[in-house]
Every structure is written in structure tokens, then in C-alpha cells.
Amino acid sequence: MRRSSSHPTNTRRIPAPPPHHNRPLIYYHRSSSSNNNNNFPATRNAHRLSPNFIIDLHLDPTIAPSNKRPDPNIVNSVISQCKPTPPPDRTIFPTTTTSRTKLTASLHFQEWSHTLNFMTALWELRLRGAHSFTPKLQSHILVASDTEELKRNLTKKFSDYIEGFIEGVASNVNDDENVVGRWQAKVSEKSDEIAKVTRLLKGRNKPRNFIELNERKKGLMAERDLIVKRLREFRASMNCILKYIEGGREKEGERGLEVFVFDGEIDWERIHRLVLREIRRLVDGLPIYAYRQQILEMIHSKQVMVLIGETGSGKSTQLVQFLTDSGIAVKESIVCTQPRKIAAISLADRVNEECRGCYENSSVMSYPTFSSTQQFGSNVIFMTDHCLLQHYMSDTTLSGISCIIVDEAHERSLNTDLLLALIRGLLCERRDLRLVIMSATADAKQLSDYFYGCEIFHVEGRNFPVEVRYTPSSEGTAFDNVSPYVHDILRTTTEIHKQESEGTILAFLTSQMEVEWACEKFDAPSAVALALHGKLPFEEQSRVFQDFDGKKKSYICH
Length: 558
Ligand SMILES: Nc1ncnc2c1ncn2[C@@H]1O[C@H](COP(=O)(O)OP(=O)(O)OP(=O)(O)O)[C@@H](O)[C@H]1O
Known about the structure:
Pfam families: DEAD
Protein name: RNA helicase
EC number: 3.6.4.13
Distance between the termini: 75 Å
Structural class: alpha/beta
CATH architecture of the largest domain: 3-Layer(aba) Sandwich
Bound molecules: adenosine-5'-triphosphate
Shape: globular
CATH class of the largest domain: Alpha Beta
Radius of gyration: 29 Å
InterPro entries: DEAD/DEAH_box_helicase_dom, DNA/RNA_helicase_DEAH_CS, Helicase_ATP-bd, P-loop_NTPase
Number of helices: 15
Helix content: 40-55%
């Protein structure tokens, strides 16, 4: 039978804890140079007890800048919100924060029941968005049933939280978080519109109106289908997490390929990050998200596939994450090649940002240039196709790689084509190696024919309204040694910046000289012009990602 809150079997029992305080006692760790090297103020030593349990509160260093000492008031406010749970016997704030994960405070307890309540309350508050600390338990008295009890409590909290999202009811999530509810409302809205258009189609229409209405209906149905698919993906992922934390419980319906493969003890911090990333994916609504399970099923069952999706559909940033989550990179790396260094670096940065806390540190890397010392130790590596070719030269089996994604295949550069030809030869030798050829516009049939008639998967994209504006050309011939059209582009770019309060402009010119001239002449107080062409050194190219005091940007490209 479950024993009461104390631990009668504890032979190291120390003096009884002080009565519970209304407010926690607060101590600061002293530096090691202090005369009193026991870390507690001498006057308080009477209260000092070796704690049976410690809850360390860690803060993600990416949330709190590393040079800033955590504010004790924030911790105290969190502690006060954990009421009616008894507060810790002692709270200690470290004075230095050098670790990668910031230790913000240590909460000391003597009683297991108080520790359990506190841990549960802390996680509940975090799930409600009240704080960003990760509570980590240190137990000086190891009792197996304690661990089980804590796991049961946290499983219940997390299950309620996740089920709140799945159902799309705001019982456990607030209105802002009720993203499923909002998308479901959108599905109903689209269905109503479809019904309205269907009624109009049944009436008398001129042929032109009929065609327009029919097109509108098709568009609405495609939009609704995409939302329904995204919701299905979201539920599949949430069910997968639920199944894991609840120890293999099958959820009714919606069984498909496991989108997450879990291993070992539950890491609650990671689970929370995964849930938050799924919510973000649902909110962002990238088209590829709607096809995640279909794509994964194809990649897991076939060795090669061609993936075609419109620009911005999420191919480069999402596919590597889907594959990592589904377990393809457990032992070996997924390599995604890019034709340009800047793309390899910026994609790695972006993916790292999106999946912060979902994988181990250094799980996503970029190798923009080749080095013979490079290892395939990360889950995902973005590299230039040239870099992968160099690796092939030193190891023609490409050991350490489980999946190669050749991105931007339509560019058909010498490196890309050579790489594809070499991988084609390797596929017969390494039956475990998978290849995905990705592009927005490549000739999919040609690529499929070359790769033994492999499957082609199309990701239907989102359409955005495009407004075409014609600018009357400047009269006369070239002046200032540049063509009149460059003056026109400069004038139009400046005008758009004056009219629009936000947004970035991409302008394409035909030579490096024109780009440099345009950047020099660009003059709009609220914006900066940044050159982007292949001959720029990498540091200069990277300027496009910098922030210029919140000013809008124009990328003048060649
Ligand atoms: N560095 C970034 N900063 C902000 N948003 C980004 C960044 N990179 C990508 N995104 C967002 O992610 C979305 C998907 O980008 P991604 O590169 O995965 O698309 P894609 O289908 O590979 O496009 P393309 O065919 O042009 O390579 C973009 O529409 C954009 O909203």
C-alpha cells in the first residue's frame, strides 16, 4: 500500500524539517571565495538541512540571455502560483549561470508528498504557459514507487493537455491555444461557402459565370481538403505522443505510420517541445504538413522518390524534421544538399530554431565547405552538393548516411547532376540508402525515368494573390552607363517602400555591375538595399539575414 508522505525507511533521517513557511526562505549561493564556504548565510545555518529532494529549475538559455542573472522575483512568483501546494523548505538562487542550460533556482524539500505536489504543479503551470522553467528532480532517497507516482501524475497532466488540443475544445487550453477549434471553424466556413456556390451553380448562369463559379467551388474544396488533412496530421502526431506517454495505449481510429519514434525514459521537456512544434506547424499551415504521413510511408517503403512542391511549401525545412522524427536518422545522418553555401547555412539555422528542444544539441548542422575531418554524427546535415561530392571521393559508399535529399534538383548544375549519377550507382550497392530528389519545378518524369521509374509525389501548394503592375520605361538610351530598366527598377522599388509599411522586396538585375550600381543609388529612408550575387564573399551574402534597426529590406540580386 502507498505509504504516507514521509519516508520511515530512511536511515539517513535528519532532523525534522522546519514547519512549513507561508513564504519560502530565499538563499543565494555564495561564491567559493567567500569565508563561509557552505553557501548559506551563517545566521541561517540553524535551518540548514540536507534536503531529501531538490527540484532544480532550469531555463532555456535561448530564452534568457546568458549574461543576465535570472530574476529571483520570477521564481518567487511561480512558487506562489503553486499554492495550495506547500512551498519548498528552502529556495536557492545560484549567483553564477555558466551552464548551457541555466540553473535558475534549486527548491529544497524534505517530504516526498510536497515534492510530488510541487513538481506536478510546476509542470501544470508550464503547460498553461505561466512560465518557461524546466523542473528537474534530484532525489537523495530513491524509492521506485516515487518515480512511478510522479510519472503517473505527469502523464495525467500531459494527457489532459494534449487531449484538449486533439478535441479542439478549450477545456484545457485557452482560446488563443485552441488552434484545432479555429481550424475546425474554418472547415465549417468553407463548407458553407461551398454549399452557397453549389446552390448558385444550380441556378441559371451565363456560361462565363458558370465556369467562374465552378472554378471557385474547386478552389474552396481544395482549401477545405488541405485544412482537413492538416488537422488529421496534427491528431496523428498528438495520438502518437499520447500512446508513448501512456505506455502504448492505442487510440481509436486514425492509426497510420508513427510520425514519432520514441526510445527510453520519458523526457517531459522534449514532449512539451514536440507538442508546441506541432501546434506551430498547424498554425503555419505549410502545405507539406498535410502530406507528412503519405510522404513518410513512401520514403519508408521505397528507396527513391521525386518530391515536387511549390516554392515555400516547406520541402527544405520540414522534410528533414519529418524524417528525423520518424526514426530514419537514429543511427546515421540525413544529408540534404543545396547548390549554394548560404542556403545550407541558413536552412540549418532555421531548422535548429524550429526544432529547439525537440532533439539533442548539435542534431542539425551545416557543412558549407568540405573538410576531411567532418563526421556524420548529427541527425541532419545541410551541405553543398559540392561538399557531398568531396565526401564521395573519400568514401564511395557514403557510410554514415541513411538518407540523401538532393534539393533544388531543377538547377541541374554540374555538381547536382554528377551527384545524382554517382548516387544512382550506389543505390544498388547500398539497399538501405534512401534518396529523395526535391524541386519546385524539375522535370519529374525525366528524373523518375532516370531512377528506374521511381514514384513521384506532388505537394499541392497554397496560392497567394499576385498583382501585376507595369512600369512605363524611362525614355532614352542608357545613362550613367546602366540600362534604363535599372533606373525603372530602382524607382519602382523606392515607390513600393514608400507605399508599404512592411515587407521585403526581391529585385533581379542582369549583371553584378548593375546590382552594385543600384545598391549605391538606392535611397529610401525606411529601407536598406542589399546586394546578393554569386561573386560576393560569404560574409557579405550573410548580411541579408541581419537586422538593420527594423528597416525594411530590398534584396538586389543577380
Ligand atoms: N530563414 C527563415 N526565416 C523565416 N522563415 C523561413 C526561413 N526559412 C524558411 N522560412 C519559412 O518556411 C517556409 C518553408 O520554407 P522552405 O524553404 O522549407 O520551402 P521550400 O518548399 O523548400 O521552398 P523552395 O522550393 O523555395 O526551396 C517559407 O515559406 C517561410 O515561410
